[in-house]
Amino acid sequence: MTTTVDDSAATGAPAAQRGRARPFSLSALASYLQVAPLALILGFFLLAPVLMIVVVSFWDYDFARLYPDFVLTNYAETLGSWVTWRTYLNTLKYAVIVWALTLFIGFWVAYFLTFHIRTSAMQMVLFLVCTVPFLTSNIIRMISWIPVLGRNGLVNSTLIEMGLVSEPVEWLLYSDFAVVLAMVHLYTLFMVTPIFNTLMRIDRSLVEAARDAGATGWQILWNVILPLAKPGMAIGTIFVVTLVMADFITVLVMSGGQSASVALMMRNQMSLLQYPAAAANAVVLLVLVLMMVAGILRVVDIRKEL
Amino acid sequence: MNGERRSGEFWVLAIFFALFVLFLYGPLSAILILSFQGPNGGLTFPMNGVSLHWFRNLTQQQAVGDFGGSFRRSFTLGVMVMLVTVVVSLLAGLAFRRRFVGATPLFYLAVASLVVPSIIISLGIGVMFQQIGIRPSWYGSAFGAHLTWTLPFGVLIMFAVFNRFSPAYEEAARDLGASPWQTFRHVVLPMIAPMLVGVGLFGFTLSYDEFARTLMTAGTYNTLPLEIYGMTTNVTTPVLYALGTVTTLFSFLVISVMLGVIVWLGRRRARV
């Protein structure tokens, strides 16, 4: 009985030992029965659909139906178009900006909760205060910016009353600014939670030791806390980057249809029933996202952080 | 750090935190207030009288589409996803405590489920069902699509739980003559029950609010997020905010009930 799931890369070894392995075979059977539901669900609703997309991306199609085939036109059309490249660049731009902002906000919020709140009850209460909005509808949270940022919204009327501007500021809503703001609003918790988790596990005596050795506050932060917070930051980065790369609803609602993202381009192709074209796009996006995640996973071992 | 005077850093960060909370709740409270707009009021401030007009409007089916039906579907789907997520994650968590062939690929499959863009899963399931010839439905294809989002969360939480779970408790139970089932039922389960409720809360709320994965998989009948999205494109009255207020209050209710259960379980365990 091991309590950890670490280094189960060597999983083959025990089960493969033959001979008088009475309890082993029984417990191995139990393991398989216990993971079977998970494996079946993920197999049918994740693995099979993704394989289906890869297959369909090589199919031919017209306005009415799909034709099983092996053509590269879907990829040629996708990768050969300027629009695609601009859209990918735009999506990456969102990812970088939102990542930087959520990392900054997420770190300081987690840092405040960990090192400045003295009782663990208060820590949990404040953490819950941050969590609750993230358990409510994303679409409602997007809509809620309309009365704030709109042409006659709170921000504009305040600015006009204060005499700072004479006309309403137009770029507050239905702009890249609005998209980034809404994404930060929606996704910051995915950065706060993993960083909070790693910071809470830092041994306080390390901080004490650094202070006794004469380190200043900034030195402690830079040389002790930040390096130890890296795994949490990496996990938060995986969440935020993959969520932004996959986003189309925020881009659609908050830009008022003026900006594009890869997923939004896919959705438009889907609504025109151009499934093979959307599938080719999906494959390119998936490869890009998996490469980004693999890059981040080189920095951090997720299973050690759980 | 106890007993020290609050430093300047504390106050700067406290203000930063307060602004963050304002950023989270400010817009939500704006639509909450505006949903009580008078019958002639618009989508922005100022308030043009105070009324329940838009909430009444919400109950009239023709005015805003099938709000009641989509709510019932989303609620049922959320409960289904919650139950399956709790049971399947718990079983997988138990299995992963032992080594078995295929554990590593399955773990990475669960992680992949978290990072594969939701619209790709939506498209994949939609096309697959179309090709097999099964009609997509909210209780079939959308149910599966939601599970690919909630299960990895559940499994990772169970991993974290069992990583910190000392086998000494089970060994003690076994030494006292408990059967494996008794050990699980009377020792393990009470200890992890609060975390299971947490997994359930995640399962329900993630499903109840899911949009992208439902888009291609819901079939004929809309779930609530699809209905709300449809409204954003063609409704220009505060009835939209009334719907937002009702669903948000419902989410708050679910969260409070679940947190209440977690606290209750914790208290009960402390008493025993």
Topology:
The complex is a heterodimer of chains A (306) and B (272).
Chain A: H1 12-16, H2 22-56, E1 60-61, E2 66-67, H3 73-79, H4 82-115, H5 120-131, H6 138-143, H7 146-149, H8 154-161, H9 176-187, H10 189-200, H11 204-212, H12 217-245, H13 249-255, H14 262-271, H15 275-297, H16 302-305
Antiparallel strand pairs in A: 1-2
Chain B: H1 8-34, H2 53-59, H3 61-64, H4 67-95, H5 103-115, H6 118-132, H7 141-163, H8 168-175, H9 180-208, H10 212-215, H11 224-234, H12 239-271
Helix pairs in contact in B: 1-12, 2-12, 4-7, 4-9, 5-7, 6-7, 7-9, 8-9, 9-12
How would you summarize what this structure contains?
Chain A is mostly helical. Chain A is about 70% helix and about 0% strand.
Could you list some keywords that capture this structure?
heterodimer; A: 306 residues; mainly alpha; MetI-like fold; B: 272 residues
What does this structure look like?
The complex is a heterodimer of chains A (306) and B (272). Chain A has 306 residues and is mostly helical. Chain A has a single domain, classed as MetI-like (MetI-like fold, Orthogonal Bundle), CATH 1.10.3720. Chain A is 71% helix and 1% strand. Chain A has 16 helices and 2 strands. Chain A has helices at residues 12-16, 22-56, 73-79, 82-115, 120-131, 138-143, 146-149, 154-161, 176-187, 189-200, 204-212, 217-245, 249-255, 262-271, 275-297, 302-305, and strands at residues 60-61, 66-67. A two-stranded antiparallel sheet of chain A has the order 1-2. In chain A, helix 3 crosses helix 15 and helix 14 (262-271) packs antiparallel against helix 15 (275-297). Chain A starts with 11 loop residues before the first helix and ends with a helix. Residues 1-22 of chain A have low confidence and may be disordered. By secondary structure, chain B is mainly α. Chain B has a domain at 65-234: Orthogonal Bundle (MetI-like fold), CATH 1.10.3720.10. Chain B is built from 12 helices and no strands. Chain B has helices spanning 8-34, 53-59, 61-64, 67-95, 103-115, 118-132, 141-163, 168-175, 180-208, 212-215, 224-234, 239-271. In chain B, helix 2 crosses helix 12 and helix 8 runs antiparallel to helix 9. The two termini of chain B are 34 Å apart. The mean pLDDT of chain B is 85. Classes of the chains: A mainly alpha (306), B mainly alpha (272). The interface between A and B is large, with 97 and 99 residues.
